[in-house]
Amino acid sequence: MVSIPLNADARPTSIRVDAEATGKVGSQSEAGRAPGGPAEFDRIAPRLKAVLRVARYHGVELDPNEFRVASASPVPNATDLSQWAQNGGMWSRALRIRWSHLLRFEHTGPVVLLFNDGGAGLLTGASPERNVVFLKSADAPEDAEAIAIDELRLSQVWAGEAVLLRPARSYIAADAPFTLGWLIDLVRFESRSMRDIGIASFTLSLLTVLPPLMVMTLVNKVLQFNSVSTLVLLSATIAVLFVYETLLGHARRLIINVVGARLDTKLNLHVFSRLLRLPLDYFERHPAGETMYHLAQIYRIREFLTGKLLSTFLDLITLCVLIPVMFYINATLGWMVLACAGVIMLIIFAFLAPLRRRYQQVVDAETWKAAALGETVVGIKTVKALGLEPQRRALWDERVAEAGRARLAFGQLANWPQTLVTPIERAMVLGTMLIGAYLAMSDTSGYMVGSLFAFMMIAQRVAQPLVGLARLVEDFEEVGAAISEAGSVLNRPLESSSNSTGLRPKLVGEISFRDLTFTYIGTNTPALDRVNFDIPAGTMFGIVGRSGSGKSTIARLLQGINRDYSGFLKLDGVDLKEINLRHLRQGLGVVLQDNFLFRGSIRDNIIAGRPGLTLSDAMRAAHLAGAEEFIERMPNGYDTYIEEGSPNLSGGQKQRLAIARALIHDPTVMILDEATSALDPESEAVVSANLMRIARGRTMIIVSHRLSSLTECDQILVMDQGQVLDVAPHATLLERCALYRQLWMQQNRHLDNRQARLAAVPPRLV
Ligand SMILES: Nc1ncnc2c1ncn2[C@@H]1O[C@H](COP(=O)(O)OP(=O)(O)OP(=O)(O)O)[C@@H](O)[C@H]1O
């Protein structure tokens, strides 16, 4: 902890710069809890916390999970922090600032100062008259007074490192729909680079005019009058021009490359961030292959933005220079070129609408094809187990044939404009040459030959961009289709804007359902029908019922996956719909029947990319989940590599890892939705035995078919057809709830009464 005594005139106190100032990211200190801040917020490094607070001051919610450490530094450094803020859509700079500069931050927003010991503080203002700055701890409550610090005291803890943040001028709203307008905005924000490219292109265009004019001079002056001095002058000018053109061309390509890469990066970041914010519902209703195919279309948008659109923009500049020169050399020939270009445009426009229809058929067929592929890959285990290869192959053949047919039809139609345009393109170049030659023959001035050469050179340069412009309309159609395909995924209503808004109450774990009715979209019968029950904080709560009775739906609603219910669902007295979604989920630990483990080490899977968590945190969670004994027996312990889908782990081991992963952030509420149902009795016994230990200090909700795993619960909720049948402890339910008794008897039929009682004895801890 860094203490900075206050000025002599102030009360002797100190700034608690940070309790965890050792720089240990993720230490579990309870001190300095930000009011209303999520538990995760308290655990993250003080430097992250300081940046988060300044971002929040500017109305931007950064996600600590997106913080990445690029450097080997043990504490987050200024560059990484600044990059994090930039990725979150802010303008940010990592700087070294002198004291005199600090005094200028009189009325600006807060600035993050990074202290020598790994801590951080917020500079909230300055007073040049008093020669002091005002500092606040990253942990201090919002309304806490800033402390005045003079240069000498600050220099003891601060060497000049700072991070500046403000909302980016070029901030592209993350919630804005994915449309052409959005894409144009994206390009517009590269205005400075675009201006440079424009200047370079304009200069290059001017330079391209010079060689034809020189040829004209060469023919008209040098050849006609044998002027050697003009020839020398021309040669020197051409040499200089070549060098200049080469250098300028190089610079322009370089800038285009950079702009292209930046647009590409922004596009990809935006698309993925929107994808992650789509509601689970969407993924449940759409095959993965279809989503991936639609999103893959952004590569076409990217190519259009960084290729065609940019080059057409440059061509336009070239045309602006070349067309007047063309008319200056010969107006008759100039009109001929423009007329040909006009006819080409008419042909392309005429084919636009039919081509659009055919292209839509291609898109539909390709989407179906991708869906079949994705479904087969995702369900390959079932395909193999049931020997469904021939059926899947037949489906695939059908889809491939359909896509092939659609492409063929599109290609055949697209061939027509191409065929009609080619002779006109040729006529444009050759026709002008022939007519030019005829004009030259009848010209008496003698200058026409040189002009014809110059015109020929220029006409070729004009023809290409003019046709390119017409083709752009065609490309535009394709890109329009690609935008609407990607938009069909990205422009769905996002999970909730409450990722960045909403309340962030401190979670205790008391839950209440009041008259809650919920019906899934596309169904008529409510999955939950006027449900009422309470779960006191810190208790173990079981949910049972027949298949389809609504057990998992309760768990889904608690996670905020579906929010369009009627009635009330309250967490610690706060309506769940009002709570910030990210905050809510950070307070929950969820283990499902089938949990996905990502490719990576066991440690990485338990930590799951959360910033600041270390091996010791992973070990603590693994111990609590009863996973440590098998992890330690593995050849590389916590560094053992797991493949996608974790084929090298047994079902029980996978579940225990999933429990450890859910426990890593010490959730207030833990939900186990059929987490032990698919396990063999031995693995289930191990997991169940650890439940009591896991449940300590948190609310635990266990959804299970197997009643024997719920006997220790404080209360058990019995659901039937979406309605609450009863809520009571195991013994009471056995006595008074017929359905519960029936389920119990079914599952323990093989046991006599004595054994049935034994089964109710809690399993011992292992
Ligand atoms: N995503 C969904 N879309 C539409 N209907 C759904 C969806 N999920 C569940 N349902 C329906 O809602 C009802 C309750 O389902 P829920 O999954 O909550 O039952 P459950 O008690 O957990 O069943 P099980 O024990 O078989 O998992 C069922 O009738 C089910 O068909």
UniProtKB/TrEMBL annotation:
<dbReference type="GO" id="GO:0008233">
    <property type="term" value="F:peptidase activity"/>
</dbReference>
<feature type="transmembrane region" description="Helical">
    <location>
        <begin position="309"/>
        <end position="329"/>
    </location>
</feature>
<keyword id="KW-0762">Sugar transport</keyword>
<dbReference type="InterPro" id="IPR017871">
    <property type="entry name" value="ABC_transporter-like_CS"/>
</dbReference>
<keyword id="KW-0614">Plasmid</keyword>
<feature type="transmembrane region" description="Helical">
    <location>
        <begin position="225"/>
        <end position="244"/>
    </location>
</feature>
<comment type="similarity">
    <text>Belongs to the ABC transporter superfamily.</text>
</comment>
<dbReference type="InterPro" id="IPR039421">
    <property type="entry name" value="Type_1_exporter"/>
</dbReference>
<dbReference type="GO" id="GO:0016887">
    <property type="term" value="F:ATP hydrolysis activity"/>
</dbReference>
<keyword id="KW-0547">Nucleotide-binding</keyword>
<dbReference type="InterPro" id="IPR011527">
    <property type="entry name" value="ABC1_TM_dom"/>
</dbReference>
<keyword id="KW-0472">Membrane</keyword>
<dbReference type="GO" id="GO:0140359">
    <property type="term" value="F:ABC-type transporter activity"/>
</dbReference>
<dbReference type="Pfam" id="PF00005">
    <property type="entry name" value="ABC_tran"/>
</dbReference>
<feature type="transmembrane region" description="Helical">
    <location>
        <begin position="335"/>
        <end position="353"/>
    </location>
</feature>
<feature type="domain" description="ABC transporter">
    <location>
        <begin position="511"/>
        <end position="746"/>
    </location>
</feature>
<dbReference type="GO" id="GO:0034040">
    <property type="term" value="F:ATPase-coupled lipid transmembrane transporter activity"/>
</dbReference>
<protein>
    <submittedName>
        <fullName>Peptidase domain-containing ABC transporter</fullName>
    </submittedName>
</protein>
<keyword id="KW-0813">Transport</keyword>
<dbReference type="InterPro" id="IPR003593">
    <property type="entry name" value="AAA+_ATPase"/>
</dbReference>
<feature type="transmembrane region" description="Helical">
    <location>
        <begin position="435"/>
        <end position="459"/>
    </location>
</feature>
<dbReference type="InterPro" id="IPR005074">
    <property type="entry name" value="Peptidase_C39"/>
</dbReference>
<dbReference type="InterPro" id="IPR003439">
    <property type="entry name" value="ABC_transporter-like_ATP-bd"/>
</dbReference>
<dbReference type="GO" id="GO:0006508">
    <property type="term" value="P:proteolysis"/>
</dbReference>
<feature type="domain" description="ABC transmembrane type-1">
    <location>
        <begin position="197"/>
        <end position="478"/>
    </location>
</feature>
<dbReference type="Pfam" id="PF00664">
    <property type="entry name" value="ABC_membrane"/>
</dbReference>
<feature type="region of interest" description="Disordered">
    <location>
        <begin position="15"/>
        <end position="39"/>
    </location>
</feature>
<keyword id="KW-0067">ATP-binding</keyword>
<feature type="transmembrane region" description="Helical">
    <location>
        <begin position="197"/>
        <end position="219"/>
    </location>
</feature>
<feature type="domain" description="Peptidase C39">
    <location>
        <begin position="40"/>
        <end position="165"/>
    </location>
</feature>
<dbReference type="InterPro" id="IPR027417">
    <property type="entry name" value="P-loop_NTPase"/>
</dbReference>
<keyword id="KW-0812">Transmembrane</keyword>
<dbReference type="InterPro" id="IPR036640">
    <property type="entry name" value="ABC1_TM_sf"/>
</dbReference>
<dbReference type="GO" id="GO:0005886">
    <property type="term" value="C:plasma membrane"/>
</dbReference>
<keyword id="KW-1003">Cell membrane</keyword>
<dbReference type="GO" id="GO:0005524">
    <property type="term" value="F:ATP binding"/>
</dbReference>
<keyword id="KW-1133">Transmembrane helix</keyword>
